[in-house]
């Protein structure tokens, strides 16, 4: 059996050789038949031409001789003598030149080479040994794959090589089976391969020449199809690159936004408002989001562009190549938005982006500044150390915490901050006025008819509401609230200023202990509690109500205070813990709501929810608190103590006695709202005290991006040791019923020498 198996391939090889010999004999027979056919056709043409010549002789009078030769009288169908000129010689020459020995040798050699190449490609594994365990066909396929992957022009080159091979092979075959010269044969194959398919019909009438022409034309159709596919792919890839935002941005002096978050669209709106006075500008967004999706979200966002163009690009802000693509070095300001993940992860990513920008800016000598959004206040010093003077940081959670503490302690202050932040109304501006050098700030307050001076910016130090007698020095910049940077100018001092005496006005009340309720939980709640402890007076209380267990609340606060290296206890606040569902009326009714001076509803971070769900929970809690307050005020004859007993202690303040509207106005119920679309629902509910946290942070970031000095002003207003914005009744400064100008009120405020900004 083994012997039979070893001898079995030999008959197969012999049969293949015999089959090849048969094909060769058939091919030679076909060629001989073609030759005889051509000779017969040539002889037929010769006979026709002789008949034409005899017909010409018959016209000259030799009709009897012509009839004797068998030529019919009707010879109009015979060819003309001119057409027969040289027919015999040409036919013989064509026949002889079409099948000369060199042409046949060329034909045979070409066929053998093509067949050898096909066999070698088919039997490559048998011809070449394996190497490193890989067959020759695998190595060849791998080399081709590497070539196509590494060479961007591989498709074009491959098509060129195949076209050249087909033209050469077709030219050799056509040269071997026709009387055409080699150069003409190659040119005809060029026409057949891709330039002109109709060239096949113009080829010689021989069967072999037409077979070669048809084969070349079919190959040309294949080459043309490949060419069209390559061109289509190239055009499609170019269009896809444009859609995906892979082209370079050639803008300069633009605002660059790195990253995409829920603050991106509000920032675009505010920067567009800021560019309105300049006729518009350019905003470039680089984010790890498809360009089409970015443009779709921007199109769905309802805002007025006011001449500002928004250019979107898809890329990674961590990569220097992508930063170069959006010309980060040429931007007038760069905004880095915090990414997803934990606070430390987001800040670590922002730090890497700052490092990339600093390195890129050092090479290009950029003058623009960087605004970096941070998530944890502990990571802020590291980013400032890396970025140096070029970086301005905004800790979003810290800003919102400070805003909510200030707004919860003063009814109406939230609306003031909504109007101050952003570029829709009046905003902060700093400018130098040499004509005011040597003037006291009391006089500066009265020199601007279309702006409200707030303080001085002296050598990067902010002085909000400076003390009386403070004189403007050379280089000082005046901080004002104005509609635009070109909407105000220095004017003359009014001469009819009226300053009322202190005995004619009311005296502000002495601060009293406060009782504050926090509903919900947030990651940096310990920072907010510490800030509240710095604001209130001794004897105040803080009630924490969330879905976490009481012990879990205490443990989280203890761990946070230990990480911040703070004392375990607060100096002024007493913390009371309670647990329950924020949307449960039964749980909320267990709280002494009639005793609280302010209630703050936080966007609850204890549960994994999106912004819409958190806003829905906050809105439900807010409405429940209001309804419970109204019910208790209507039913209670006397305020209840925290233990449910009637009491006339100092905590039983008169804020909850009398008119219901007064009680609601004096107890601020402040809610944190993440989604700006929820604002309409709150307005319909008749609630004006709310903090649009994401929108306010976006407004602050946009303002700092336009003027980095605004960051120093905001930090001064947010710090507990700095100046703050207070809302006071006009009777604290002017007599009741007096009709005075704003200049009179401003002079009266300065005359009282109180650290207050109206």
Describe this protein with a few key phrases.
758 residues, single chain, 11% strand, disordered N terminus, alpha/beta
Describe the global form: elongated
N-end to C-end Cα span: 111 Å
Number of strands: 16
Provide the helix percentage.
40-55%
Mean pLDDT: 77
Tally the helices: 27
What structural category characterises the helix and strand content?
Answer: alpha/beta
Instruction: Assess the beta-strand content as a share of residues.
Output: 5-15%
Rg, rounded, reads 47 Å
What is the topology, as strand order, of the major beta sheet? 3-2-1-4-5-6
Low-confidence stretches: 1-11, 66-71, 73-78, 87-96, 638-663
Biggest sheet overview: 6 strands, parallel
What would you note in describing this structure?
This protein has 758 residues and is of the alpha/beta class. Strand 5 (369-374), helix 15 (380-387) and strand 6 (391-395) form a beta-alpha-beta unit. Helix 16 crosses helix 19 (525-535). The longest helix is centred in the first third of the chain and has 51 residues, at 9-59. It is elongated, with a radius of gyration of 47 Å.
List the topology elements.
Elements: H1 2-7, H2 9-59, H3 63-68, H4 87-98, H5 101-122, H6 124-127, H7 136-150, H8 154-177, H9 182-195, H10 207-244, E1 255-258, H11 264-274, E2 282-287, H12 291-300, E3 309-314, H13 320-325, E4 333-336, H14 343-364, E5 369-374, H15 380-387, E6 391-395, H16 396-408, H17 413-420, E7 427-432, H18 441-444, E8 452-458, E9 461-464, E10 477-482, E11 515-519, H19 525-535, E12 540-546, H20 550-563, E13 573-579, H21 585-588, E14 598-601, H22 611-635, H23 660-666, E15 668-673, H24 679-684, E16 690-692, H25 693-706, H26 709-718, H27 742-752
Parallel strand pairs: 1-2, 1-4, 2-3, 4-5, 5-6, 11-12, 11-14, 12-13, 14-15, 15-16
Antiparallel strand pairs: 7-10, 8-9, 8-10
Helix pairs in contact: 2-4, 5-8, 8-9, 8-10, 9-10, 11-25, 14-15, 16-19
């Amino acid at each position: 059996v083994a012997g039979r198996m070893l001898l079995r391939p030999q008959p197969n090889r012999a049969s293949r050789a015999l089959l090849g010999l048969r094909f060769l004999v058939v091919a030679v027979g076909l060629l001989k038949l073609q030759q005889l056919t051509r000779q017969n056709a040539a002889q037929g043409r010769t006979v026709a031409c002789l008949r034409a010549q005899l017909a010409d002789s018959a016209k000259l009078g030799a009709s009897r001789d012509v009839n004797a030769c068998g030529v019919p009288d009707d010879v109009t169908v015979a060819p003309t003598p001119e057409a027969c000129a040289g027919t015999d010689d040409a036919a013989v020459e064509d026949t002889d030149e079409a099948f000369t020995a060199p042409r046949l040798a060329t034909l045979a050699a070409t066929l053998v080479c093509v067949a050898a190449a096909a066999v070698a490609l088919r039997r490559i594994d048998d011809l070449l040994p394996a190497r490193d365990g890989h067959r020759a066909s695998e190595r060849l396929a791998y080399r081709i794959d590497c070539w196509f992957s590494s060479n961007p022009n591989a498709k074009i080159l491959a098509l060129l090589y195949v076209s050249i091979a087909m033209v050469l092979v077709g030219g050799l075959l056509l040269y071997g089976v026709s009387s055409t010269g080699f150069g003409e044969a190659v040119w005809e194959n060029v026409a057949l391969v891709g330039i002109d398919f109709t060239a096949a019909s113009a080829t010689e009438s021989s069967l072999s020449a037409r077979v070669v022409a048809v084969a070349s034309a079919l190959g040309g159709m294949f080459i043309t199809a490949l060419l069209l596919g390559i061109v289509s792919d190239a055009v499609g890839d170019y269009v896809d690159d444009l859609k995906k935002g892979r082209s370079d941005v050639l803008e300069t002096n633009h605002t660059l936004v790195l990253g995409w978050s829920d603050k991106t669209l509000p920032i675009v709106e505010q920067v567009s408002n800021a560019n309105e006075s300049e006729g518009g500008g350019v905003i470039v967004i680089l984010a790890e989001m498809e360009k089409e999706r970015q443009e779709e979200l921007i199109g769905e966002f309802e805002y007025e562009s006011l001449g500002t163009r928004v250019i979107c690009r898809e890329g990674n802000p961590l990569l220097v190549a992508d930063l170069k693509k959006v010309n980060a070095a040429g931007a007038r300001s760069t905004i880095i938005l915090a990414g997803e993940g934990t606070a430390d992860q987001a800040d670590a990513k922002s730090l890497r982006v700052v490092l990339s920008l600093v390195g890129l800016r050092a090479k290009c000598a950029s003058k623009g500044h960087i605004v970096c959004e941070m998530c944890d206040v502990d990571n802020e010093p590291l980013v400032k150390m890396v970025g140096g003077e070029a970086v301005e940081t905004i800790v979003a959670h810290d800003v919102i915490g400070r805003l909510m503490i200030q707004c919860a302690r003063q009814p109406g202050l939230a609306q003031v901050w909504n109007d101050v932040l952003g570029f829709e109304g009046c905003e902060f501006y700093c400018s130098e006025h040499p004509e005011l050098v040597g003037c006291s700030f009391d006089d500066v307050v009265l020199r601007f008819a279309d702006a409200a001076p707030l303080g001085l910016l002296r050598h990067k130090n902010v002085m909000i509401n400076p003390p009386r007698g403070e004189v403007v020095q050379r280089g000082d910049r005046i901080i004002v609230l104005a509609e635009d940077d070109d909407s105000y100018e220095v004017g003359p001092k009014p001469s009819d200023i009226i300053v009322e005496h202190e005995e004619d006005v009311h005296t502000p009340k002495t601060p009293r202990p406060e009782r504050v309720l926090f509903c919900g939980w947030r990651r940096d709640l310990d920072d907010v509690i510490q800030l509240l402890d710095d604001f209130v007076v001794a004897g105040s209380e803080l009630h924490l109500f969330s879905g976490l267990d009481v012990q879990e609340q205490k443990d989280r606060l203890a761990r946070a205070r230990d990480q911040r290296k703070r004392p375990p206890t607060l100096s002024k606040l007493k913390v009371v813990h309670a647990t329950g569902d924020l949307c449960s009326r039964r749980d909320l009714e267990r709280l002494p709501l009639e005793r609280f001076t302010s209630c703050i509803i936080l966007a609850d971070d204890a549960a994994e929810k999106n912004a819409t769900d958190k806003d829905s929970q906050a809105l439900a809690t807010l409405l429940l608190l209001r309804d419970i307050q109204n019910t208790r005020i209507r039913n209670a004859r006397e305020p209840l103590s925290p233990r449910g007993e009637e009491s006339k202690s100092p905590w039983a303040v008169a804020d909850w006695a009398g008119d219901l509207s007064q009680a609601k106005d004096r107890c601020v119920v402040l809610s944190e709202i993440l989604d700006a679309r929820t604002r309409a629902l709150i307005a319909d509910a008749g609630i004006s005290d709310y903090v649009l946290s994401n929108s306010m942070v976006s407004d602050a970031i946009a303002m700092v991006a336009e003027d980095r000095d605004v960051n120093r002003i905001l930090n001064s207003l947010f710090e507990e040791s700095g100046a703050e914005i207070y809302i006071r009744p006009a009777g604290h400064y002017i007599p009741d019923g007096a009709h005075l100008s704003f200049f009179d009120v401003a002079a009266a405020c300065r005359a009282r020498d109180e650290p207050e900004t109206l």
